[in-house]
């Protein structure tokens, strides 16, 4: 049975991956010429005048290429541009990221880079596309490096050092806890991404919640933008957003042409899992407490992890970078325990999800202990009697539960798995059948679609047959498909029964 469950985690399209890697290599070569470096220097100096000393070689990350200009006074500025073809909505991403950084800088003590200028591709004379020009934060290392197992090869996936001292772990975790605690206090009236009002610089929820998963769907399945939420779409309730997230899982299955299914049985499993999850989302049955949190939407940064937290030589946080895909989300997302305590996500753990959870739990206890201490510290600093148990501050007023208590509840009830499944289309199938299906629908010894056919209407069963036939046929037709809006809309409608 375990071998079958392994197949339920969908792989990304190999043909698309291969093309993407070739495109990235071409992009990388084109943005490292002497002419490009010269134009970047001139552009940076226009917005941050001074005497330039050294232009560092460009560094390509997961989503961005970064140019660093060092000045004679020892300071540095970077220009950060999204990597072509890796980000589906690069101008949108830049707009949201800058607004988020400025809001966080104004409303918290979290150290974020100062932004000098940002703009669209037409605002950038270097020809490199949308950009952000901001301070380079001097640092000794990132937190991931400080937590890393030194015995692992540099090419291996990063894993928390099993022999790290409790004192060092508590010190690093406590700083992350402070960051998460401050972010959890930022409330907004709607779900979406932050944008700046050009008239007065105020920041508000004005764009769709642009997520890493949404970007991956766009890039790795070639799903047209028309089937995803529109750019100005925001959400007034958590239920609306969970429904949109469930739709995206179906979009991923619908439009990923290659490597989507293993066989007919696997296709049925994946289609039925998405139908059931969407059904729960539509009915508002994913959480008992969903309505309790409505109107309490919080800023949630998907990429907030030790790799993006910069430290000085004394291991003190001096900067938090890479705010891409940060958005205002249902409060439940902010109340989940952070996945990065072991540095690796559960799907990347050598012993699978069960092994990950076993290794994670003692580290979570350490994190919750230091988070509780940070909560007491915050309460004391704001003049509230720290002995008030079960209370924390929200805009100077006590609320029902501490963040540490919320996180403990989320772990104990496995609520975090519901959100994890909602956010990650390529991990969805394994999490659903292994952990969530029986939570909602009762015993299912084989952990697949057979026991759930009674939950489907005749119309849904007919749609399943059509979907399975198409996915199996696509498996034998290796190619990259580009969809037109009309055809894409019709296909999606046939699956969202």
Task: Outline the fold blueprint.
Elements lengths: L1 H6 L6 H17 L3 H14 L4 E4 L3 E2 L3 E8 L4 E7 L7 H18 L7 E5 L11 E5 L5 E2 H5 L18 H19 L2 E2 L4 E4 L6 E5 L4 H10 L16 H18 L8 H20 L6 H4 L3 E5 L7 E3 L5 E4 L5 E4 L1 H5 L16 H30 L10 E3 L2 E3 L3 H11 L1 H9 L4 H14 L16 H18 L9 H11 L2
Antiparallel strand pairs: 1-3, 2-3, 3-4, 4-6, 5-6, 7-12, 8-11, 9-10, 11-14, 12-13, 15-16
Helix pairs in contact: 6-12, 8-9, 8-17, 9-15, 9-16, 12-13, 14-15
Task: Give structural notes.
With about 500 residues, the chain is of the alpha+beta class. About 45% of the residues lie in helices and about 15% in strands. It has helices spanning about 1-5, 15-30, 35-45, 90-105, 145, 165-185, 210-220, 240-255, 265-285, 290-295, 330-335, 350-380, 405-415, 415-425, 430-440, 460-475, 485-495; strands spanning about 50-55, 60, 65-70, 75-80, 115-120, 130-135, 140, 185-190, 195, 205, 295-300, 310, 315-320, 325-330, 390-395, 395-400. The strands form five sheets. Strands 1, 2, 3, 4, 5 and 6 form a six-stranded antiparallel β-sheet that branches.
User: What is the arithmetic mean of pLDDT?
Assistant: 92
Q: Kindly estimate the percentage of residues that lie in beta strands according to DSSP.
A: 5-15%
Unreliable stretches covering 5 or more consecutive residues: 1-7, 386-398
Number of strands: 16
Tally of helical segments: 17
Fraction in helix: 40-55%
Shape by Cα distribution: globular
Q: State the major sheet.
A: 6 strands, antiparallel
The termini sit apart by: 30 Å
Structural class: alpha+beta
Please state the CA-atom Rg, rounded to the nearest Å: 23 Å
Domain Aminoglycoside phosphotransferase: 61-363
Protein name: Phosphotransferase family protein
Pfam families: APH
Organism: Stachybotrys elegans
């Amino acid at each position: 049975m375990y071998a079958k469950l392994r197949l339920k985690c969908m792989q990304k399209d190999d043909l698309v991956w291969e093309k993407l890697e070739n495109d990235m290599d071409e992009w990388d070569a084109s943005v490292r010429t002497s002419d490009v470096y010269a134009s970047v220097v001139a552009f940076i100096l226009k917005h941050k005048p001074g005497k330039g000393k050294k232009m560092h070689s460009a560094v390509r990350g997961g989503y961005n290429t970064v140019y660093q200009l060092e000045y004679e006074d020892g300071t540095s500025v970077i220009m950060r541009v999204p990597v072509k073809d890796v980000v589906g909505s690069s101008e949108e991403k830049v707009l949201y990221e800058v607004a988020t950084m400025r809001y966080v800088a104004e409303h918290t003590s979290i150290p974020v880079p100062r932004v000098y200028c940002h703009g669209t591709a037409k605002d950038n004379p270097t020809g490199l596309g949308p950009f952000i020009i901001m301070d380079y934060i001097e640092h000794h290392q990132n937190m991931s490096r400080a937590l890393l197992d030194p015995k692992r090869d540099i090419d291996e996936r990063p894993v928390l050092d099993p022999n790290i001292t409790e004192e060092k772990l508590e010190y690093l975790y406590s700083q992350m806890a402070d960051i998460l605690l401050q972010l959890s206090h930022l409330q907004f009236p709607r779900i979406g991404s932050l944008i700046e009002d050009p008239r007065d610089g105020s920041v508000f929820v004005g764009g769709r919640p642009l997520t890493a998963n949404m970007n991956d769907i766009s890039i790795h399945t070639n799903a047209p933008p028309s089937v995803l939420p529109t750019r100005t779409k925001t959400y007034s309730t958590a239920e609306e957003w969970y429904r949109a997230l469930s739709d995206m899982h179906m979009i991923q299955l619908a439009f990923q042409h290659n490597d989507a299914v293993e066989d007919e049985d696997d296709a049925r499993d994946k289609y039925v899992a998405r139908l059931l999850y969407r059904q729960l989302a539509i009915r508002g049955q994913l959480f008992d407490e969903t309505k309790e949190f409505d109107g309490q939407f919080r800023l949630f940064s998907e990429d907030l992890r030790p790799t993006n937290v910069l430290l000085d030589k004394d291991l003190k946080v001096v900067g938090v970078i890479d705010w891409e895909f940060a958005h205002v989300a249902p409060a439940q997302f902010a109340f989940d325990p952070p996945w990065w305590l072991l540095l690796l996500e559960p799907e990347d753990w050598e012993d699978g999800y069960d092994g990950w959870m076993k290794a994670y739990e003692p580290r979570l206890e350490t994190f919750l202990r230091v988070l509780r201490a940070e909560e007491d510290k915050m309460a004391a600093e704001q003049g509230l009697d720290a002995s008030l148990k079960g209370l924390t501050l929200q805009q100077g007023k006590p609320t029902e539960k501490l963040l540490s208590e919320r996180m403990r509840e989320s772990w104990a009830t496995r609520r975090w798995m519901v959100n994890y499944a909602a956010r990650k289309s390529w991990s969805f199938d394994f999490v659903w059948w292994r952990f969530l299906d029986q939570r909602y629908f009762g015993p299912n010894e084989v952990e697949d679609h057979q026991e759930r056919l009674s939950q489907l209407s005749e119309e849904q069963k007919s749609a399943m047959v059509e979907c399975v036939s198409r996915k199996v046929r696509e498996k034998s037709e290796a190619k990259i498909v580009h969809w037109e809006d009309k055809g894409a809309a019709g296909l999606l409608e046939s699956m969202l029964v």
